[in-house]
Amino acid sequence: MRIFVDNVEMIGYSGGRYRIIIYYQDVNGQCLERLLIMNEISKAKTFMDTGSYQREKEDLTYHIFRDLNFLESKRHISFFRTDFRGSNFINVKFYRNNFDRADFISCSIRNCSFDSVDFGGCEIKNCYFEEIVFKNNKYDGTAIHQSSFIDCQFSDEQFLLTMYDCKFINCSFCGCRYERSSTEKLEFIGCQIFDTDLATMHAEGHTFISCKLNNVCLGSYYVFGYLLYNTKLDDVDFLYHGEKVSFDVIEGLYKKLLSESRHFEFINATVILKNLYGISDTIIKAIDRLRSFEIIQFRHTELSNILTAICFYIRYSMLPFDELVKILDYLDRFNWQQFTFEETLGLLSKIEMIKHIMSAGEYQLSPEFISTIPYNGFALISFQCNTDDFEEAVAVANSLIENSLRYTYIPELYCLLDQKKGSWELTFLIPACCAMLILLILKNTAGIIMEFSFKRKFGKSLLAKLSDNTTINDLESIAKTATIAKIINNDAYDLLSLPTIDKAISNIVKSIKIGI
User: Fold this and answer.
1) First and final C-alpha spacing in the chain
2) For each of the chain's 516 residues, which pLDDT tens digit applies?
3) Under DSSP, is residue 477 helix (H, G, I), strand (E, B) or coil?
4) Which residues contact 313 (CB under 8 A, 6 or more apart)?
5) Rounded distance, CA 169 to CA 465, Å?
6) Full DSSP string of 88-149
7) CA-CA distance, 220 to 247, in Å (whole number)?
8) Residue 14: which of 108, 117, 91 has the closest Cα?
C-alpha cells in the first residue's frame, strides 16, 4: 500500500527504544496514525474517554493523550494504580483526577496542566515535562526521579515527596512548600523562585545557575552544600532549627564545618563567601587529609563531591586564575591509584571531566576571570601540523594566535620559541589569556586534538632559548603596559562572536598542546 506521509513526531526515548508517531494518509485519503517502536510499526494506541468514572488499574502504556479537557467535565476520572509507561501527553488539561499509585515512566508531557489532581504515591521517573502548569495538587509520598522540567510553572504546591536527580530549566515556583519532603541533586537553571520554603525538608546537593530567589527560605544546614552561580542570596531567609537567623550566624556555622569533617561544604562555603584567594591550599589540605580516612564510603563521597565542585567552579570560571592553576597542577600530580579500585574508577572519571572541560573549551571565560590572570603570565602552545611547508604552518599558527589577540589590549604579544621539522611542530610563547581564548575559538572544530596542562614542561632547548632570547624581555615590558583590569577588550569581547576557523586550517593543524 502506498502511503503519503504528512508529519513525523518524536515522542520520547525509553528502555533503549525510540518512539515516533507517523501521521499519513492511505490511498483513499483516510488519515491514519502509527506508533513506531524500534524497527517495528504497530497501530497507535490512542486514549479514548469511554465515559467511565473509573479507569483504575488499566494498562495505558504507550498511549497517546491529545487535546483532552478534563476541566470542563463534571466527571473526575480516577486513574488509581494505572500504568502510563511510555505514553505521550499533548495539550491535556487534567482537573481533580486521581493518579495515586499510578506509574509515569519514560513519558513525554507537553503543553498540559495539572490542577487540583491527586498524585498521591505515584511514581514519576525518566519523564520529560515542557510548558506544564502545576497548581493546587496533592502530593503524599510521590516519587519523582531523573526527570526534566522545561518552562514549567508551579503555583501554591504543597509537596510531600521524594525527588532525586531532576533538572528544572526556566521554571517558576510561587507559593510552594516542601514540608517533610526529601530532595537530592536537583539542578535549577534560569529559574524564578518566589515566596517558597525550601528549608523544611531534607535538601542536599542542589545547583542553582542564574536563578532569582525572592522571599525564599533555605536551610542553614544545607546551604553550603549548594553549588551557586550567578544567583544572589540577598533576598533569602536562613532557617536554623526552624528559626530565622542572620547571615552572621551562617558564617559562624561555616567555621565549624572542618571540625565536623564536612570538607566539601567548607570548600564550597569558602567560594560562596568569596574568600577565593587561598582556596587552592584549602582544597589541597582537604584532599591530603581525606586520603588517610579509613571509612571508604565517607572518603569516596567527600572526594567525589569536592571534584564535582571543582568541575563546576572551572566551568563557570569562579576561581582566580592562579588558584585554578595550583589546584589542577595538584590534581594532575596526585596519586589516585592509592585508593581501592572502585574508588579510583569513580574519582578518575571526575578528573577526566575536568580535563575535558578545559581541553574542549567548555567553560565561561568572563572578563572578570581574565582580569585575575597576571599581566605577565605566559603559556606555551605547540601546534602539530599536517604539512611539510614551514611557511604554511607558521601562517596558520599566527592566524589563530592573532585571532585571540584581537580580543585583548595586548598588541601582538607572542613569539616563536621552537620548531621541529617533519610535520612541523611549532612552539610559541603567548599570553595565558590568549591560550584560554584559543580553546574557545577551536571549541567546535572537529579533527583537532587539544591537550591542556597546568604544569609547565619546558624542554632543555626551550630553557636555553628562554634564558638567552632577549625577545622575552621585550614581551614582558609590553605586557606590563596592560593593566590587570584591561587585559580583555570589553568592547570587543563577546563569546557569541568569537571567530570560527575555516576548514583549511583544521586540515593543517592536527593537534594543539597548551601548557599554563
Assistant:
1) 65
2) 334 444 445 445 444 454 555 555 554 555 555 544 444 444 558 998 888 888 999 999 999 999 999 987 777 899 999 999 999 999 999 999 999 999 999 999 999 999 999 999 999 999 999 999 999 999 999 999 999 999 999 999 999 999 999 999 999 999 999 888 999 999 999 999 999 988 888 888 999 999 999 999 998 878 899 999 999 998 898 888 778 887 777 777 887 888 888 999 999 999 998 889 899 999 999 999 998 888 888 999 999 999 999 999 999 999 998 899 899 999 988 999 899 998 999 999 999 999 888 888 888 877 778 778 876 678 888 888 888 888 888 988 888 888 787 777 666 678 888 888 777 889 888 888 888 888 877 777 767 888 877 665 555 555 555 555 545 555 555 445 444 435 555 444 454 455 566 666 778 888 888 887
3) helix
4) 271, 319, 324
5) 52
6) EEEEEEEES-B-TT-EEES-EEES-EEES-EEET-EEES-EEES-EEES-EESSEEEES-EE
7) 9
8) 108
CB atoms under 10 Å from CB of 196, counted, come to 22
User: Which pTM was predicted?
Assistant: 0.82
Handedness of CA 268, 233, 134, 118 (dihedral sign): positive
| Count, residues in the chain | 516
d(CA 207, CA 216): 15
Q: What is the DSSP letter of 304?
A: H
Q: How many Å apart are CA 108 and CA 113, to the nearest integer? A: 13
Find the helix packing angle between 296-315 and 321-333, rounded to 10°: 140
**Torsion angle of C-alpha atoms 336, 342, 345, 351, degrees rounded to 10:** -50
Q: What is the DSSP string of 160-229?
A: -EEEEEEEEES-EEES-B-TT-EEEEEEEES-EEEEEE-SSSEEES-EEES-EEEEEEEETTTGGGSEEE
Amino acid at 327: I
- Classify residue 387 as exposed, middle or buried by CB count within 10 Å of its CB (0-12, 13-18, 19+): middle
**Whole-angstrom distance, CA of residue 268 vs CA of residue 224:** 6
Pairing of strands 63-69, 88-95: parallel
Q: CA torsion angle for 154, 155, 158, 159 (degrees, to 10)? A: 0
